[in-house]
Specification:
Layout lengths: L1 H16 L7 H18 L13 H27 L4 H22 L4 H18 L2 H9 L3 H14 L1
Helix pairs in contact: 1-3, 2-3, 2-4, 3-4, 3-5, 4-5, 4-6, 4-7
Length: about 160
């Protein structure tokens, strides 16, 4: 629905706009990103099923919602990884990354061509940003090697 898209749009804007310049804001942003990501993954995108070709206006709204949902997952995951400064945030990131990738892959299977292409691009961005420095840093700092290995295995199997 249009209301759901507006909510996702506002959420995405708040994830993208926060800078964390003042002391303690980075921790608040990380916690916010972790809560947002967990909520998005827990309450998977629930839209009424419809044929993408039935109503072009509704199909465009639905495609936009899929795109915004994917962008919110990517933004919150990137924020969580880029601001990971504690063992707790490392553990959260390690546990949620495979679910994030899996959710994005489900969006790529959407009946809306526009959203599938855009979400694929967003997923590429996520993989590039997370699998470079942040994930390596998190895995090195992780106290539990089995969690780190599990994260990598689940992420790769999702792909």
């Amino acid at each position: 629905s249009k209301r759901g898209c507006a909510t996702l749009s506002s959420l995405h804007a708040s994830l993208e706009s926060s800078e964390g310049e003042q002391e303690g804001e980075g921790e608040q942003e990380r916690d916010f990103a972790a809560r947002v990501l967990a909520s998005l993954l827990q309450h998977k995108l629930q839209f009424p099923s419809s044929d993408a070709s039935t109503n072009n206006g509704q199909a465009a709204v639905m495609a936009e919602c899929y795109i915004l949902y994917g962008r919110c997952i990517v933004s919150s995951t990137e924020k969580l990884f880029s601001l990971a400064t504690s063992t707790k945030s490392v553990q959260i990131g390690i546990k949620l990354l495979p679910l994030s990738i899996s959710s994005l892959l489900q969006l790529v299977d959407s009946p809306y061509d526009m959203s599938a292409k855009t979400v694929s691009s967003e997923m590429t961005t996520l993989i590039r940003s997370v699998f470079s420095v942040p994930l390596s840093k998190m895995l090195l700092e992780s106290n539990n090697d089995s969690d780190a290995k599990d994260c990598i295995e689940k992420s790769l199997s999702a792909l």
